[in-house]
Amino acid sequence: MSDHPTPPFGNFETVRTALDACDLLARPVADALKNWDDRRAAESVLYVDTDPAKADTAVFCEAYGVPLEASANCVVVAAGRGADTAPAACLALAHTRVDVNRTVRKHLGARKASFAPVDTAVAETGMEYGGITPVGLPGGWPLLVDEAVAAAPYVLVGSGLRRGKLILPGSAVARLPGAEVLPGLAG
C-alpha cells in the first residue's frame, strides 16, 4: 500500500488508504474493510481527512473541489408490510434523489417505505448522522445501489463519521455485501 495515494478528484491535505486509517473510521466501517472478502476492492478504498463542520454534501463539494456527480449519499429507509418493518440502505449520486415511494418500495415488496428517522438510522448502523456509508452496514441489510453509482469510475461516500470520507471505485461499491444494483433507483 502506498504511503501517499493520489485521489482521483478533490483537494485534500491528508489522503491514506482506508485500511491504514481504520482508527479514523466508525468501528463497523473499519471492521467491514478489514474483513471484506474482496481484498482488492478493500485495498482500493481511500480515506480523506476532512472538517466535520463541512460534512454536508453541497458545502463539502465546494470546500474540497469535489464534483457533485462524484459524491454519493447513503440513506437508510424503513420498508414496511403490516406490522413488520425492515431497514435497507440506498446509495445514489448526490445530485439525484432516491425514489423511495415507488422503486424502493416495489423492490423490497413493501406496502410502505420511507426514510428512517435519524436516531434509528444512527443507532442501527453504529455510524454518525452525516457520515452513514454503504461500507459496514449491518449484516442482512439490502444495499440498493443506483446504476449510475456502480458505473462511476470513483465515488466519494461517508466514513461512518462526520470527519473524513471514503473514495472507492463504483464497481467496488457494487460488490459490497448485500449490494444490488438497480436501474432507476434515483433520478
From TrEMBL:
Pfam families: tRNA_edit (PF04073). It comes from the Bacteria. The lineage of its organism: Bacteria, Bacillati, Actinomycetota, Actinomycetes, Kitasatosporales. It comes from Streptomyces thermolineatus. Residues 52-171 form the YbaK/aminoacyl-tRNA synthetase-associated domain. This is YbaK/EbsC family protein.
